[in-house]
Amino acid sequence: MNLNRKYHSQKTTAKCRGIDWQFTYDTWIEWWGNDIINRGKGPGKLCMARKGDTGPYHPDNVYKITHSENVTDAHLGKPKPTLLGKINNPYGRKGKAKELAL
Question: Residue 24: its pLDDT value, please?
Answer without folding.
Answer: 98
